Structures are given as structure tokens and as C-alpha cells.
Amino acid sequence: MTTATPAADGAATPAEATSGASMAPVGGGAVTPAAGGATPDGGATRGGGRPVEGAPGLARFSFNQATTQGWPLPDLVDALVRSGVPGIGLWREPVADYGLEKTARLVRDAGIAVTSLCRGGFFADAGWYDENRRAIDEAAALGTSVLVLVSGGLGGRDLAGARVHVADAIGRLVPHAREVGVTLAIEPLHPMFCSDRCVISTLDQALAIAERHEVGEVGVVVDTYHLWWDDRAPALVRRAGPRVSAFQLADWITPLPAGVLTGRGMPGTGCIDLPAWVSYADSSGYTGPIEIEVFNTEVWARPGADVLAEAVAGFRAATAASTP
């Protein structure tokens, strides 16, 4: 499959990078797919296939399609069904390549829940408003209530002004997102991406924006790769509570590659205490999907089935003590 590939947490599409559950409701409450979408608790879907029942220990597992770059979507979905993986995180670029309606039908008929769509945001870009409205509509069409927002870079030298603009932009999008049942999930990225990818660098900054709005309208993404270094983050995850809209696992490995976009490690290969992070999410009341999302050129070069198997093992290890 030829893809305009997904980005490192929305930071850039992998094309740019290579060139340079039961699943609970949003915010600890349900990624409830739209009409025809899967309901991963095993109930019937409206107009779709019977939801995939997660294999033992995998009821909350969601596999982000960016982790296996180039694996054709039908093959990936088939592998998820056969492996008892009930959820998938999707990206707009490969979805567009395959076709929005075709993708929605594929996952619906397979009984796979779309746990998130990446990405909206990049609010410094011209045309950001219309592009983000399209992203919101695509999320709704795919049956997910979570649109991940990566704010975009500086666009100049006024960092404070850039962050104000992000908050204002999200506020303008809330009415449309509310209307179609999509939560805008702000993802803070590691500070190394602040200049060109994401001016929202900490969970505290993301929550300061989200808390201006109702729960279910604007939430936050907890991604271990971006937050592990911040000693304030565990308490902030607990504070976020029902505003945790998505939870993603990836590991931190060094040395970082040139350009740093493809430096994420498979769970268990780096220095992050992932079971501790799962416990932080649990303590917030979050009981929703847990995605594995990895951007790594060496991982992308491997057979997709091998990567999926490693992701399953990493998920089991990280969540073995989880109580939800």
C-alpha cells in the first residue's frame, strides 16, 4: 500500500520523518463508536459485524496502525481479528489513501473499534479551521469519539502567543465537535518538538486548555513517550480524571535517531516504567483503550505480524497488574 503515512504522534507524517475494554467511554468513561461501529464489550453493532472479543488480557488493547508502516489496512485488520485485538488507532493519511468510507466499512464489518483518529491540530497552518472540521467529521464517520490534536509548532518566536492561539482555536472547534459527538483530545509532545511540531509540551498545559470546556468536549492524551520525563505528570494524570481521552504506550530508547521523529521504542525495550504509567492511568479512573503507538524505522522494516506479536507481549507485560 502506498501511504501518505502517519506522523510521529502527529508531529510529522512518516513520509516527512523518513525524509528528515471492554473499551470505556471517553475520559474514563466510552469510546462508543458511531452507527455501525463496534461496541467492544461484545454486544451487537448497528449495521456491522459482531465486535471482536479481546483475547484473555487484551480486552483494552488497541494497536495503532502507525506502528506497522506499510502493512495494508485489510491485512492489519484481519490480523487484529485473528489475534483477538479489539481496537485500532487510525491515521487520516492512510485512511484517505484507502478511502474513508471503505475504511469505516472495513473496521465495522470486522467488529474492530476505532479507538482514536490522528490527527487534527497544527493550528499555525493556513486553513487550520477548515482542515480541523474535516478531521472532526472523519472521526465521526469512522465511529470514534476521539480526535487527537497535535497543536503544531511556533510559527515565529512568540511562544506564549502561539499557546494562546492554540487555546482559542480549540475553542472555535468545540461547537462542531460537540455536534457530531467527537472529543478533541489535546496531546502534549516532548519539549524537543516545541519549535516545529507542538507548542503544548506538558500535561499541565494541555489540561489548562481542556479545563475551560466541559468533560467530553475537550480532553487530553497521555502518551508515555512524551510525558515520562516530567515528575509532575503522574499527579496530573490523576487530576485529569475523566479528561483522559486516550492513553498510549511507547518506550524511550537512546541514542535518538537523526531528526528524532522515529526514536520511539516498542514497549519493554527502553527505560520507561510502563506498568507504573498504567497504574497512574488506572488511578485517574480511566478504564478505556490502551494503544501501542511506535514510530521507528527499524520496526517499520519488520513483518507486521511480528511487530503485532511483540506489541501484544509488551501490552501484557505493562498491564499485568492493571485493575480496571
UniProtKB/TrEMBL annotation:
GO terms assigned for molecular function: isomerase activity
Location of the Xylose isomerase-like TIM barrel domain: 78-310
Region (Disordered): 1-57
Keywords linked to the UniProt accession: Isomerase
Low complexity bias (residue ranges): 1-18, 31-43
Isomerase as UniProt keyword: yes
InterPro entries linked: IolE/XylAMocC-like, Xyl_isomerase-like_sf, Xyl_isomerase-like_TIM-brl
Pfam families hit by this protein: AP_endonuc_2
Name of protein: Xylose isomerase
Species this protein is from: Virgisporangium ochraceum
Lineage, uppermost ranks: Bacteria, Bacillati, Actinomycetota, Actinomycetes, Micromonosporales
